[in-house]
Design the sequence.
């Protein structure tokens, strides 16, 4: 049975103003809570927990001694995240030395007070002593040191394993169930929800493995028996991102075709055994999709197991849409197509990905945050959702997951007043003290979320728990800190929310850059309201190429621009800057229209189009600000009786020649920089993408750029471009394109008589990503796929050479192969498409020939399956292994990745050798580094002759003013576009020295004024 997932939005807009949402939240709670009674109930719990603090080796104690805000705490967290996965001793030693070497465990940074002061000092001394056995950061150790350092590393590994153990109930489901049985002996009201640990699946094989492990767990829990009720029995929690590689809104059809049947299988098994199966809540851009799946599954349950009450969903209270989600789940239950509807379980959590949600909203320039920005807003939302769940208790069995004593007491009060059945939940390894007291004082039941898995699978989960326990705002953290008074710890979130409801705690994404320029507006493509205008624009856009210009047109335009120069450069700087800002604002408001043009003319995917329009908007605003800050007249210091002034002004007519791969952003960046510096501009876009350039030029004219300050010339490079470069009025050239053409322009300029004309050239790259064995393979593969294949590899920053450490190369390659197999190559107008076509037939023929050559000369590692009939010029993303870095000779401007290994058994044995060999290729644009060894990343960046180094992320998508972009060597002349030094190159400089004492003497000095 195949089901379509309805894409209609079920929830309100995710980015409503926080104040508005908080007002609704508070309304929901009016008259429902007696907070003094809440405090009276919770205070003894707090006191009792504080009187019996957790043992020294417990995480809570460790994090109190070394909070994650300190360098020591951070070092512990980073070791915990990475050390266990490092297979080779050399790297493990380097990582340990790096992290322990950064932190001050030697006493100064240690705790001043606290119940474990002495123990903490002893352990600090032990770590400090151990550090002596470790080499200096990333340098290879000597023999003696090597022996000592191996011992230290082994001890550190052991310590992290013990730390991890606190959060894992067992390595296998059997072991976990034995442990659960032991715990239940001590407390009969405990039930468990098992979670099979792991990262989201990157490959189909991983997803199948998770499916098998969930099924195995379900069978083990059922043990062949049917439980009396899902409330009384143990159950499982599942992560949908583990069961399908592309659990994304853009892939709805595949989610319906692949993921839905998988979850249905699990649901059938859980229903047959009458157990609880809960779907974990993940990122906010998956929320609508998760509800669509939930409803489809509800329809299935209504048809097959209508009496089953164990199907559940986790709901995150930190989301601004939380209350609506609760109502939606209740609606699905009531409207389920079976007699009397269904009854579900809902686990209410606050939410585990707060920092990630904030970062995503800022990066993507979203209209707001999908989550609250004050902790007490989340706390208030949690209580409001709880109240609503209790109201819906006829169709929902509420499960309240929190470790916060105040929240627990408030829930118990509300639920008992309404006489609703419910349970509390906690994570294994957390909140044990509080629940010991809660269970002693109240009759509530408690379910423990119990992760199951090996150490390797624990790391991401462990880090989330470390963050949660270590954050200053977290209840668990404050509970362990005796300096926080119980009144403060148990303060009502409602009072605080009433006080702060108008003001978000963080600047909105649009205000990211402070009081200066506004951040450009992005769009959340997972949100129908945001996506629809873009899709409509794409559907309505048709592009018709304009006629080409001739060399005669070039001369006429250059004469006009030459004449226009005087008037334009005399315009006050503030006026020129204001025109740029007006252009930026106009473009920002016309995002859908320009996305439509980019999809239709440059064949870019929607995500790439949004990023490109934003970059162009940022260029306009950034260069306007930069011009005012840097190009204004400056008084220079000098002797008395003299005034010295430095002025920057336009050079004359600037020729701007831009490529097709960023037909808006690069075109706009060149043109507006030249204009704001006071030049007039002859702009020649690539012949493949004239329409988008023409529309932007129109926009500039409308914003106030005079007709004789900017001329657009269409034509082939060899005719129009060459005529422009060679023209006698050309005062400067700004070029982005191939190294060959840059050389040609350089030679033409050099051969010209007359003034010496400056050239700003930005060209290609043979960009590498260096990966060591501390890197997280999932992160590496995500970064590689984005960097090498997004925009079909047609970016000068794109990854061409992946350099993998031999100890982990096979695993990374296997994951990469799996991830490549999941990419969608096709029509860029389709939201589901990841990789669009190549730009034209010529590029397609050249790239296809290069791939054929590689098929003969290198080892094919992986290739994305492609339906070549779906759209013209689709080239399958492909990866080849080569033997040496030096084998890479030329830039292949498409989705073709080379992979090479490094390490003791390879041609490049050390990090330094890798960097030297990459430098020797002669290009110098971007470099990716994937390592958890900070000193190593710093050393690589210092040695690399490249313009942009990206550590532990992808290496594309430089943001204006944040990552100024441009390289050196064969990659270009600089200065960097979108950086503080760019505009200077477009200017002529003049100093004016006036002898103010010339007319009769130095009056100012004599008057005592100078
Ligand atoms: C049984 C169980 C299952 C869970 N399942 C999931 C799940 O499926 N998905 C998921 O995301 N999480 C899940 N969690 C994790 C859960 O989100 C955290 O454990 C929880 O947020 C901690 O809340 P608390 O009430 O214990 O602590 P508190 O200290 O009272 O609250 C901490 C929480 O407040 C929120 N917060 C912190 N700072 C801010 C801020 N500045 N602005 C707004 N909000 C802020 C965050 O959500 C943070 O986690 C689960 C937890 C349990 C116990």
Sequence:
């Amino acid at each position: 049975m195949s089901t379509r997932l309805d894409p209609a939005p079920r929830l309100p807009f995710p980015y409503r103003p926080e104040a508005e949402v908080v007002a609704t939240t508070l309304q929901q709670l009016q008259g429902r809570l007696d907070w003094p009674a809440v405090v009276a109930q919770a205070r003894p719990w707090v006191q009792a927990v504080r009187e019996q603090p957790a043992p020294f080796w417990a995480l809570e104690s460790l994090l109190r001694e070394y909070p994650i805000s300190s360098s020591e705490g951070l070092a512990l967290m980073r070791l915990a995240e990475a050390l266990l996965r490092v297979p080779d001793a050399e790297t493990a030693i380097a990582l340990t030395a790096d992290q322990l070497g950064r932190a001050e465990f030697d006493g100064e940074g240690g705790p001043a007070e606290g119940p474990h002061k002495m123990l903490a000092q002893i352990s600090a001394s032990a770590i400090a002593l151990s550090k002596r056995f470790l080499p200096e950061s990333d340098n290879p150790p000597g023999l003696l040191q090597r022996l000592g350092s191996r011992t230290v590393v082994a001890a550190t590994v052991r310590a992290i394993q013990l730390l991890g153990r606190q959060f894992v109930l067992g390595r296998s489901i059997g072991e976990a169930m034995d442990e659960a049985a032991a715990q239940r002996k001590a407390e009969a009201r405990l039930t468990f929800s098992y979670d099979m640990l792991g990262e989201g699946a990157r490959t189909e094989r991983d997803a199948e493995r998770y499916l098998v492990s969930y099924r195995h767990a379900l069978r083990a829990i059922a043990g062949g028996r049917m439980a009396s009720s899902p409330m009384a029995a143990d159950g499982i929690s599942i992560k949908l991102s583990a069961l399908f590689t592309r659990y994304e809104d853009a892939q709805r059809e595949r989610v319906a075709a692949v993921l839905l049947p998988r979850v249905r299988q699990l649901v059938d098994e859980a229903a047959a055994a009458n157990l609880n199966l809960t779907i974990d809540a993940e990122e906010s851009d998956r929320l609508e999709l998760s509800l669509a799946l939930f409803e489809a599954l509800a329809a299935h349950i209504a048809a097959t197991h209508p009496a089953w009450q164990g199907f559940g969903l986790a709901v995150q209270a930190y989301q601004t849409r939380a209350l609506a989600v609760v109502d939606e789940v209740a609606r699905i239950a009531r409207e389920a197509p079976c007699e009397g509807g269904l009854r579900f379980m809902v686990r209410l959590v606050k939410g585990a990905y707060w920092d990630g949600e904030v970062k995503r909203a800022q990066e993507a320039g979203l209209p707001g945050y999908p989550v609250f920005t004050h902790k007490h807003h989340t706390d208030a939302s949690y209580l409001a959702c709880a109240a609503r769940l209790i109201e819906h208790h006829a169709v929902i069995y509420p499960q309240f997951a929190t470790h916060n004593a105040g929240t627990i007491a408030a829930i118990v009060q509300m639920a008992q007043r309404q006489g609703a059945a419910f349970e509390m939940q906690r994570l294994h390894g957390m909140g044990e003290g509080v629940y010991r007291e809660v269970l002693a004082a109240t009759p509530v039941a408690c379910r423990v979320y119990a992760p199951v898995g090996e150490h390797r699978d624990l790391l991401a989960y462990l880090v989330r728990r470390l963050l949660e326990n270590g954050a200053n705002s977290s209840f668990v953290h404050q509970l362990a800190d005796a300096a926080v008074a119980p009144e403060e710890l148990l303060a009502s979130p409602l009072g605080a929310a009433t006080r702060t409801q108008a003001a978000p705690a963080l600047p909105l994404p649009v205000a990211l850059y402070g009081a200066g320029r506004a951040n450009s507006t992005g769009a959340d493509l997972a949100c129908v309201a945001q996506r629809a205008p873009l899709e409509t624009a794409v559907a309505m856009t048709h592009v018709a190429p304009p006629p080409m210009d001739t060399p005669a047109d070039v001369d006429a335009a250059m004469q006009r621009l030459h004449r226009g120069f005087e008037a334009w450069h005399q315009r006050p700087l503030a006026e020129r800057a204001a025109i740029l800002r007006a252009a930026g604002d106009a473009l920002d408001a016309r995002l859908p229209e320009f996305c439509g043009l980019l999809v239709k003319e440059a064949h870019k995917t929607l995500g790439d189009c949004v990023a490109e329009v934003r970059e162009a908007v940022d260029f306009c605003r950034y260069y306007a600000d930069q011009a005012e800050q840097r190009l204004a007249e400056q008084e220079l210091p000098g002797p008395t009786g003299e005034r010295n002034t430095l002025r920057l002004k336009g050079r004359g007519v600037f020729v701007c020649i831009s490529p097709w791969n960023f037909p808006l952003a690069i075109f706009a960046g060149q043109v507006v920089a030249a204009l704001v510096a006071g030049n007039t501009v002859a702009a020649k876009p690539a012949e493949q993408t004239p329409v988008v350039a023409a529309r932007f030029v129109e926009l500039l004219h409308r914003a106030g750029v005079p007709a004789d300050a900017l001329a657009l010339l269409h034509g082939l490079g060899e005719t129009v471009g060459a005529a422009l470069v060679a023209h006698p009025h050309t005062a400067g050239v700004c070029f982005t394109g191939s190294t060959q053409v840059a050389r040609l322009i350089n030679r033409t300029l050099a051969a010209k008589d007359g003034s010496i004309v400056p050239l700003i050239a930005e060209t290609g790259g043979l960009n590498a990503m260096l990966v060591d064995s501390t890197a997280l393979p999932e992160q590496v593969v995500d970064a590689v796929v984005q960097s090498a294949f997004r925009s079909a590899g047609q970016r000068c920053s794109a990854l061409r050479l992946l350099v993998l450490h031999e100890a982990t190369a096979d695993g990374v390659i296997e994951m990469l192969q799996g991830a490549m197999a999941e990419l969608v190559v096709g029509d860029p107008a389709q939201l589901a498409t990841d990789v669009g076509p190549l730009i034209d037939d010529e590029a397609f023929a050249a790239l296809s020939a290069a791939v054929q050559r590689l098929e003969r000369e290198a080892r094919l590692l992986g290739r994305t399956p492609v339906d070549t009939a779906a759209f013209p010029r689709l080239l399958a993303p492909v990866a080849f292994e080569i033997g040496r870095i030096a084998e890479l000779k030329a830039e292949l401007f498409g989705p073709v990745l080379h992979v090479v290994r490094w390490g003791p058994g390879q041609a490049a044995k050390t990090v330094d050798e890798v960097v030297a060999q990459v430098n020797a290729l002669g290009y110098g644009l971007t470099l990716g580094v994937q390592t958890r060894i900070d000193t190593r990343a710093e050393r690589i960046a210092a040695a690399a002759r490249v313009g942009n180094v990206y550590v532990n992320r992808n290496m594309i998508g430089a943001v204006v003013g944040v990552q100024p972009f441009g390289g050196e060597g064969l990659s270009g002349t600089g200065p960097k576009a979108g950086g503080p030094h760019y505009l200077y190159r477009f200017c002529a400089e003049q100093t004016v020295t006036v002898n103010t004492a010339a007319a009769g003497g130095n009056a100012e000095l004599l008057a005592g004024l100078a």
